[in-house]
Amino acid sequence: MNLNADFDVVTLSPSTVRVMHRTAHHIYEFAVVRDNGGRRVVSRGAATLCGTEADDLVSGDLVAAAERVAAATARHIGVID
């Protein structure tokens, strides 16, 4: 499933969501955790960043967009609340 044209979901499990940027080939990994209210949510900020261009890896815009795609996909599939 692709909810954003710039990213593809490469892993979706009960504990992890990984998304890859289509052109930069960066992979952003997010843990599925419980928030203070006990709801399952995607963690804030990527736990793992993998890619070929280090300067782009820390781009706040790419990480934020990857997080939105990870959360939207996980919510759509029912992995998070």
What can you tell me about this protein's structure?
The protein is α+β, with helices and mostly antiparallel strands and 81 residues long. Helix content is 27%, strand content 32%. It has helices at 54-57, 60-77, and strands at residues 7-12, 16-21, 27-34, 40-42, 48-50. Strands 1, 2, 3, 4 and 5 form a 5-stranded antiparallel beta sheet that branches. The longest helix has 18 residues, at 60-77. The model has no long low-confidence stretch (mean pLDDT 84).
Keywords:
81 residues; five-stranded antiparallel β-sheet; 5 strands; 27% helix; globular
Terminal Cα span? 18 Å
Order of helices and strands: EEEEEHH
Mean pLDDT: 84
Could you name the ranges where pLDDT drops below 50 across 5 or more consecutive residues?
A: none
Largest sheet: 5 strands, antiparallel
How many strands appear in the DSSP assignment? 5
Q: Counting H and I runs of at least 4 residues, what is the number of helices?
A: 2
Alpha-carbon Rg, integer: 12 Å
Structural class: alpha+beta
Strand content: 25-35%
Helix content: 25-40%
- Name the overall outline: globular
List the helices and strands and how they pair.
Blueprint (H helix, E strand, L loop, with lengths): L6 E6 L3 E6 L5 E8 L5 E3 L5 E3 L3 H4 L2 H18 L4
Antiparallel strand pairs: 1-2, 2-3, 3-4, 3-5
How do you describe this structure in short?
This protein is an alpha+beta fold and 81 residues long. The protein has two helices and five strands.
